Amino acid sequence: MVDSSSFSWILPLAEEAYANREEILSNWEKFKTQLTGKQISIAVTGLPGVGKSVLCDYLSEKAYQRNYSTPGKSEDLENNNIAAKNIKIRLSTIPGQDSPNKLAALDEIFHEEYPIDGVIHVVANGYSSLRSAFAQEWYQGTDIEAYRQAQLKVEIDDISDICERMRKSIRITGKPKWLLVAVTKIDLYYDTIEQARDRYHVGESEFTRRIRKLSNQVGSDNFTWEVLPVCSILDDFKLGDTIYQSKFKEKERNHYINQFLKKIIAISKAS
Ligand SMILES: Nc1nc2c(ncn2[C@@H]2O[C@H](COP(=O)(O)OP(=O)(O)OP(=O)(O)O)[C@@H](O)[C@H]2O)c(=O)[nH]1
Ligand SMILES: [Mg+2]
Fold first, then answer.
1. What pTM did the predictor assign?
2. Which terminal CB of the chain, N or C, has fewer other CB atoms within 10 Å?
3. So where are the chain's domains?
4. Residue 20 reports pLDDT greater than 70
5. Integer Cα distance of 255 and 198 in angstroms
6. Ligand nearest to the CA of 51
């Protein structure tokens, strides 16, 4: 069982209580894991510009290297690795833009011969970067709320598609066993984080209803799902001439990245 009490949406009051990467992944443990260790493969899905690639770069430590630059729009399947105590985790990120490459990546990842163990589905509470054709079409002088609402609407189609693919795969292979929803970019809307928590986690929303439907279809013994907030790069969000500033410092971001990493490892070990 995963200890849910140690995972929180809100920053701990005392900084000393922030999740610490060194406690999660020591170099010695990483080295030992190269030799032996359980292998877990995870698909990372979500709409264009929600922050999938950058999140995976932070989880795998790539983004902490000097000269790191953000990847830009993804065209193909991307792989990142995480090594923890007795476990090797491979994150395969599916590009968000609709394209033949995206469909090929989805088919490759939801392949019955090599089923994935889990799915991390990334959402950004409507703050998708203005990168997709859809988003650019939508921002024609509309305000942030209209833009966000349109993104949140498409997000339902997207989670429905992923749930349907998961249902088919579980029926045939018994996997993936779990879904972890990453509610990212919280540095942009931390002051209203409760709304995101209601939408994606505790509330009776269309989003949570869609996942519960999957859970009922496949049976809760065969599938678990969890939701956790996170953020990665602290870029300001731009919409037309308006700029929404990131409200976090690096240490706060690192707390959420480390907490998320801890969660992935815990679910992977339990599955
Ligand atoms: N403030 C803030 N900005 C973020 C965060 N994550 C990503 N971004 C911004 O969002 C942009 C898009 O992130 P990506 O990781 O490239 O998005 P993606 O989901 O991989 O998009 P596709 O490759 O098009 O599917 C980044 O270039 C950053 O500017 C975050 O946690 N906080
Ligand atoms: Mg990407």
1. 0.94
2. N
3. 4-8+18-270
4. yes
5. 22
6. 1
Pocket test for ligand 1, best of 50, 53, 54 (most atoms within 8 A of CB): 54
- Tokens for 271? 């599955």
Greatest mean pLDDT among 22-36, 48-62, 137-151:
48-62
CATH number for 4-8+18-270: choose from 3.90.1010.10, 3.40.630.40, 3.20.20.70, 3.40.50.300.
Answer: 3.40.50.300
Mean pLDDT score, 143-147: 85
Query: What H or E segment, with its residue span, contains residue 153?
Result: helix 144-173
Strand duo 87-93 + 38-45: pairing: parallel
Does the C-beta of 54 come closer than 6 Å to ligand 1? Answer: yes
Q: Which pair of tokens denotes residue 237?
A: 């969000």
For the CA of 78, the nearest ligand: 2
Position 141 pLDDT exceeds 80:
no
Residue 35 pLDDT greater than 70, yes or no:
no
Phi first, then psi: give them for residue 121, nearest 5 degrees: -105, 120
37/152: higher pLDDT: 152
- Residue 233 Cβ contacting ligand 1 at under 6 Å: yes
Q: Which residue's CA is the closest to the ligand 1 atom numbered 8?
A: 51
Task: Give the angle subtended at the CA of 58 by the CAs of 54 and 59, to the nearest 5°.
Answer: 115
> Residue 224 contacts by C-beta under 8 Å, 6 or more apart in sequence?
177, 178, 179, 267
